[in-house]
Design brief:
alpha+beta, Rossmann fold, D-amino Acid Aminotransferase, Chain A, domain 1, Dna Ligase, domain 1, 5-stranded antiparallel sheet, 4-stranded parallel sheet, 16 strands, about 30% helix, about 25% strand, globular
Length: about 300
């Protein structure tokens, strides 16, 4: 098969893992810097180029779209879909997962366990949001934040009110969420491929840090999932429409609650912690599922 990995850098660990896995399985594979692509959008013969070179003949693409490039990156993925190239994660699903509010609303509609979450436009609604989420301590998140950036734990009512009013005063869209104290600054990353959790790790935040992101000094270890946690992770990925996803869970007193569903989950942490060839499992999934025109949305979303 001819496989394209849509990534801004071939030096990234995740890109290298996928590249080596595809080569080891005998595929013709290429890293495509999607930020350098341009497109001919026409009904008769849609095409994608880098410079004068036409990118053609691909059987499948693996999107590794950075959060700051979501709009253009998903446009490139959508163009491949229009050209009947199979994408392991479709453009609509990527866009859906990147909208934190929309994704939580979709998960809630399907009955997935979530932290109590509030959202409002009016800064004067701060007290109502805090009350809705059970009072302080309270987590406040920027909708556009990634990797723990733009996430604040407020210990008191006054601090929560001040942060909410400050963010809204800057026209920043935020979510308020209950603080799951019993999680102890740890979360669980479930790596979903197809209809299965293929690997899982527990991420523990650094001392004094409630955020568990590895980029912020957290550490990772292998964790055994319950049947309920596995089922929740697979359902969350399916609701988002993602074939490959990193589903982040917290263990609460009422069971697993979903914090986020990531459409471009990193491979370094999960492969290092578990010793599993997750990149190889993604390539195997493509081998079993990639067919011309098999994209469900066909670029319609």
């Amino acid at each position: 098969m001819k496989i394209g990995i849509l990534s801004r850098s071939s030096k990234l660990y995740s890109t290298q893992s996928l590249l080596n896995a595809a080569k080891n399985r005998g595929h013709d594979v290429r890293v495509i810097d999607y930020s350098k692509c341009h497109m001919n959008i026409t009904s008769s013969s849609p095409r994608i180029y880098i410079g004068d070179e036409e990118l053609s003949g691909f059987d499948a693409v693996i999107p590794r779209i950075g959060a700051s490039f979501t709009f253009f990156g998903t446009a490139v993925v959508r163009q491949f879909e229009v050209m009947n190239v199979y994408s392991v994660n479709e453009s609509v699903a990527i866009t859906r997962s990147r909208d934190k509010l929309r994704s939580l609303q979709l998960l809630a509609r399907k009955g997935i366990g979530l932290p109590v979450t509030g959202f409002a436009y009016d800064p004067k609604a701060a007290k109502h949001l805090i009350k809705l989420c059970g009072g302080a301590p309270l987590v406040i998140k920027l909708l556009e934040g990634t990797q723990g950036v733009g996430v604040v734990l407020t210990e008191t009512q006054k601090a929560a009110e001040s942060v909410i009013e400050a963010f809204r005063g800057l026209n920043a869209n935020i979510l308020t969420q209950e603080f799951i104290k019993e999680a102890g600054g740890a979360d669980i990353r479930c790596f979903v491929v197809g209809n299965k959790v293929v690997a899982a790790m527990k991420r523990q935040g650094a001392e004094g840090e409630f955020r568990s992101n590895l980029h912020r000094g957290g550490n990772a270890s292998v964790v055994k999932l319950s049947a309920q946690e596995r089922a929740t992770a697979v359902r969350a990925a399916k609701i988002m429409g993602l074939n490959v996803a990193g589903v982040d869970l917290l263990r609460s007193e009422r069971g697993a609650v979903v914090m986020e569903v990531n459409s471009s989950p990193g491979l370094e942490g999960i492969e290092t912690a578990t010793g599993k060839d997750v990149g190889g499992l993604i390539i195997e999934f493509i081998e079993n599922n990639a067919r011309p025109g098999r994209t469900r949305t066909r670029g319609n979303g």
